[in-house]
Amino acid sequence: MSVGKSRWDEVGYVISSRYRVLVLERLIEGPATPSRIATDSGSSITHVSRALQQLREQSHVELLVSEDRKKGRIYGITGVGRSLWETVKQKNLG
To answer: Which CATH class name applies to 5-89?
Structure first.
């Protein structure tokens, strides 16, 4: 399967931040809260929250609970994010 330019732009966007890479890597295992992702990846909650917001804007992750929920926000990887992560790992970029 050939990967088009826009796909490479998305790959470049993800791998340009180690936090975006860490978040996707953790979410590929299953849904998690920001604090669980931070703990599992050894990152600060601030960096994880920012990466989640950025990845959500790109439709790579999604909020799985109600938008108005402030605590216990659970995020999951989208089909787009999963496909993107497979490209990152397949090409050994992450």
So the answer is: mainly alpha
